Amino acid sequence: ATGTLVGGFMSAMRWGIFKGIQANEAGIGTQTIPHSMADTHDSTSQAAIAMLSTYTAGFVGFLSGCVALITRTWENPDIPLGISMAASSFEIYFSTIGVLIIGIVAVLFAFGTILGNSYNGSQCFTYLTNNKGVHYYYIGTGIMVFAGAIAEVKTVFAMTDFVLAAVALPHMAALILHAFKKPIPAEVK
Fold first, then answer.
1. Distance between CA atoms of 122 and 128, rounded to whole angstroms?
2. Tens of pLDDT along 32-69?
């Protein structure tokens, strides 16, 4: 009984953490790229916008969960988790218009995610290659988007978990190295 309880808790934690990271990429370091390129004289406001976007994504996820709880669509074993459950929940009260709204929002979210992550990746690629061969990056991105569109959702989520872990590891290493870095004395600055 204890093994089942601990195993179930660990599985729930794993899925919750990975899906939370997929939803807003908090702590991964990808939001720093576009925000660092913003033309602003008030870096504090820019940082507040960056943090707000992370909480906004979490809040939207929370609201989607509340809709599924209120409409009780989570109790139906025939409805898979995710966008299908949200569409079914909206269909209960808003008929076809609800499904249409969810479809439009999903397309806009997917398109925005593709553009944003493609931009972030291209900035990293051009930095690593000294602005050479970025068209190869865009060709690779197009192939990955096509492959993701025709693959099963479980495969895409597994690949996303792998890529996010690969992105998080160097980010964490840099944070750890920065934590042990000796501060620069005030008179040297």
1. 10
2. 788 888 888 888 888 888 778 777 877 887 888 888 88
Q: 0.85 exceeded by the pTM? A: no
pLDDT tens for each residue of 3-37: 666 666 666 666 666 666 666 666 676 777 888 88
**Nearest-10 Cα torsion for 39, 45, 49, 50:** 70
Helical axes 134-150 vs 83-128, angle rounded to 10°: 160
Q: Give the C-alpha separation, 141 to 88, whole Å.
A: 32
Two tokens at 159?
């690949």
Query: Which tokens sit at 188?
Result: 């040297």
The DSSP code for 75 is G
Rounded CA-CA distance 137/131 in Å is: 11
Q: Which residues contact 88 (CB under 8 A, 6 or more apart)?
A: 71, 73, 76, 79
φ, ψ (nearest 5 deg) of residue 32: -70, -25
Q: Phi/psi zone of residue 131: left (φ > 0), alpha (ψ -120 to 50 degrees), beta? A: left
